[in-house]
UniProtKB/TrEMBL annotation:
Residues 32-84 form the Myb-like domain. It is found in: Nucleus. GO terms for cellular component: nucleus. The lineage of its organism: Eukaryota, Viridiplantae, Streptophyta, Embryophyta, Tracheophyta. Pfam families: Myb_DNA-binding (PF00249). It comes from Zingiber officinale. It comes from the Eukaryota. One of its GO terms (molecular function) is DNA binding. SUPFAM superfamilies: Homeodomain-like. Keywords: DNA-binding, Nucleus, Repeat, Transcription, Transcription regulation. InterPro entries: Homeodomain-like_sf, Myb_dom, Myb_TF_plants, SANT/Myb. Its main location: nucleus. This is Uncharacterized protein.
Amino acid sequence: MCPISTKKGYQQKPNSIILFLTTMGRSPCCEKARTNKGAWTKEEDERLIAYIKAHGEGCWRSLPKEAGLLRCGKSCRLRWINYLRPGLKRGNFTDEEDEQIIKMHSSLGNKYMFSNSNIINFTFLN
């Protein structure tokens, strides 16, 4: 193989670069070739809900395998948080929520969203 030249005339073999890139960082959470992509089915939603009701929210990386889902852990976490979580409110803010947001913003500024837990069950998805 032809060596790769870098700055100041230093040369490095391509194999050592590939080895370095494959050993650095965290290992992937799932096998990308065996995961479902796209829309979730009703059966997948039911499996995720049943597993979290029985075991609670825990390690999202291991959840898909333990729950029998062919999904990535990140996909399961986002599905739960944005769509399936109990008590999740969707749609527009009520007048009371609007007033609370305006009041908090006037007293705390833009940081109120990060410091207040009064509006935790709301998602901005319609």
